[in-house]
Amino acid sequence: MFIALLLTACAATGPGSRSDLERGEALWAALTPSSRAMQVPEQEAYLGQLFEQELNADDCRRHRPAIEHYLARMPVDLGYWETARDCAVLMGDVSWARQSRERIATLAAFAFREGRGQHAWNPAPVLHAWDIPTLAEARGLRLKWMRYLSLDSVRHLLVEASVVDQRGAEARYYFDLLEALLRLNADDPSLIYPGNRRALVFGQLEADALNGDPLALTGYLNIDPETGEINPVAARRALENAWSAGMPGAGLSLLELCLGQPAAQCERELMDWVIQGLIELEIAEGYALRAAMAIAFDGAALESEKVQADLRGAASLSESARMEYYLASVLDGPPEVLGADRSAVVDALIDRAAEAGEKNAMLLSVLKRADDVDDQRSAELMEELEHVSEGGPPQALHLLAMLHGPISDRGRRLLHRAAEQGVAQSQFMLGLLASIEASSKGSGDAEMWLQRAAQGGHTAAMRLLAQRALTGGSGEVDHEAAIAWLYSAWLFEDLDSALWLVALYAIDPDLNPEVDRPGLELARSLIEDVGPELVDSLATVLFEIEPFLARPERGLALLEALSADGLAEASLAIAYQRSDHSEEEARAWFRTAIEQGSVEARYQLSLLLFDDPGGVSEAVEQLQLAVEAGHDWASNNLAYLWCTGERGAAMNPQAGLAVVEALFERVEEPHPYHFSTLAACQAMAGRFEQAVENQEVALAGVEKNEYETSSVKSQMRERLALYRAGRPYRWEEGVAP
Fold this sequence. Notes:
By secondary structure, the chain is mostly helical. The chain is built from 37 helices and 4 strands.
């Protein structure tokens, strides 16, 4: 039988006076790197013996100096203050007992200040996860279960706890261990970087897990302890071990993993076993998860008695709206795991939860209806967002700011509110706005907000900080800082940051002297992992982004080396880059790319040849070869040339019509130009009614999207007039098309 973590409830503490909060801050301020001794101090060497048997007065008296010495180093350790309190009671030391109770009350008041603990975006700080039971008890709450939440950010190291108050009402509370970790490692300046923070967090969890802490296993997700690689199967094993060790929260995480990750390879027998255990422990999510499995795996309808019975079971233990929202989040997974698309069921659950006042669901409901609304409906949605933003998810504040305009006074105030509540997008926006502002104060604000966004996992903020470090925007050029920011973003799977690193090492290889050509070696590694299509994005970084664009010769040298590897995409990128400087060089590189197998290079070469009066014949040859390889725009252009004789090309209307008709058979969303080419070929074949119809579609398309010049639109109208008059378009030298 699995054991729930139950504590006896006692009187709830109040919000705490100002003096309580000041004392709490002072206790946390005392938590410094000097507190973390490299080895156990001599005075505390035998303190562990105190816990080898049930507390008694003699052991407490013998170990009291060690307890006091430890608490002087770690004054926010609630577990040890609780030990001190219990020892004081056993020893009859009223003064020490009172001091211990006061410390616990002070730390609880400080932890729960300003409503902290009640939302994931505003957690209460703790030194250790085992302090949470003491905090819950100090607030008059009974703890049911705990688990680490998935590490999708480095702003917090979150523990989620299920608690029950004296009336039996269940709620979720959230606690953060990262603040304490950072204070204990405050002498390490590298912890400003998210990558290093993540390493610190994983290192702590790994150490705790290897020391046998089952709670640590609930956060030890997706990391295979044998290989260190991301592995959903390893995550499943870790969670199974934690569940078997008596951690109910691990059961929730395990089932959520199984329902969201096909690679976890969960068997139905395992899932049924865990669900039964959760229900026996009277955990509301157990019922919701059983309903999710009935819908996903057994094809049960939302309104079926089986599913509704489970929802009633969940609602008997927790708020029904929260359980409906939770069920929607579980079902909103990949179809390959959950079977058929469940979007209708998810939408229905979100609507129900929103109608019942669940603010996360209300936010999703607003977002679902936010597209293509008139001014009146937009005002109604804004009013709904205002309601959601009061005490709801702070993302609503960010959306309101965007609706009001981030540079408006109202928008800026909303951005600040959202940013203070940890919304990384708002923090990034404020940093971006401050970067644009010219004042020195704005520059300082930019660095602060961008760092906070980066520490919340915002990879664009990490890249912008790297760029500021490379260009001196943060005060001076700092290559080490830039590399640290980019590596951090890469750890968050931001491929663009990896490309920036390639560019940085390409323009300044001395930054990594251990490798002869670090930029090239990193580029080769990325291309091997991702594919040659990565070269186009790399070229954009090399030639369009500061400070890399200032050294185009280094970028070209990198691409030339990749071309020498036989990479057609690199040759093509060089051809694009050289086309503005030397058409002859561009043609040569296009031909190199063709030799390396690039169909796109044939098409691009045809465009250059088409602009050369003597190159039309070869342009047609290149287009024919590209069409044979299935190139869509080559098909469009070849058909156009054969049907109109543009630039003196030999006409072949019948073949041109066949080419463009084949194009329409394989393209799902034809471009307006495709319709115009089809119309030209149909008119040349005498099918003017069809030509008029398709030319009208082409004209409507360019007018709707407004991405064409007025001359192109005028030309299309003239062609339409020709077709309506029963005349095809035929190119004539010296006559405007």
